[in-house]
Amino acid sequence: MTRTRRPVALFLMLSSLHWLASSDEVPAVNSRGAPKRPVLQPKETAPPQVTYTLKNLKGEVCVRASLGVEFVVRENKKKYYFNLDPRSTQATGNCRNQKSVLSFVFAGGNLEFTFIKDGDVSYVRTITGLLIPAPTCKNCQNKTYIGIVDHEKLFSAKNGLSFQCKSETTLILSDNLRLKLVPLQIQAFDLAGGAFGKEVECWEDYNKRMIPIVLGAVAAAICLIAILTYVLVREHRGRGYEQL
């Protein structure tokens, strides 16, 4: 979070230069009338899940993302929420052989994913977020929230496969700005026919799926041990009676 205008101006200037330099830019839709700023909500609700696609100059789908996006703002020890509205969001960006950028542009904010292809694996290296919401009260000041997750290997999958996570994914972009993605399926590079490849399951989903199986197996093993113990004890007592 910052209260000064310099970081905001710098962020917007760099973003503008990036898109101007991109040869694969998908132009944003012009909104009618004055743009409305994001309105923070005191209560959390599930964000709508929408599928976004980005095409290269050949008209081929180069990035595909199906997700629900929620911004979480922490201010004065309180939490406020803003769900990305697909009706007022434009997916834009560019695709290259080793690097692709997918950006969600909306009035009062921006969310950008940078994909990297490294050998036979692709992943998200950088996520940047910008949110300029309307004040939360009548006399509250205007505030801007900026955050970034950089130099990471998020949502990693082999080429031709998609990363999927039905569980909630929370990313800390800054001290006062968090990002929740739920559910999530995402893929850049090597999309056959523009469709998602076979899913790579996240650890959270794997644990949720495996824990009941493991607990069930443990319970079954305990029951089997109890039954065998009972049978052996009963057989041992029966032999003792025969000797008498």
UniProtKB/TrEMBL annotation:
Location(s) in or outside the cell: Endosome membrane; Lysosome membrane
Record-given protein name: Lysosome-associated membrane glycoprotein 2-like luminal domain-containing protein
S-S bonds: C165-C202
Family: Belongs to the LAMP family.
Biological processes annotated in GO: establishment of protein localization to organelle
TM region positions: 210-233
One Pfam match: Lamp2-like_luminal
Membrane topology per record: Single-pass type I membrane protein
Keywords from the UniProt entry: Disulfide bond, Endosome, Glycoprotein, Lysosome, Membrane, Signal, Transmembrane, Transmembrane helix
A Gene Ontology term for the protein's cellular component: lysosomal membrane
Organism name: Phoxinus phoxinus
Signal peptide start-end: 1-23
Residue ranges constituting the Lysosome-associated membrane glycoprotein 2-like luminal domain according to the UniProt record: 49-191
Main subcellular location of this protein, as a coarse class: membrane
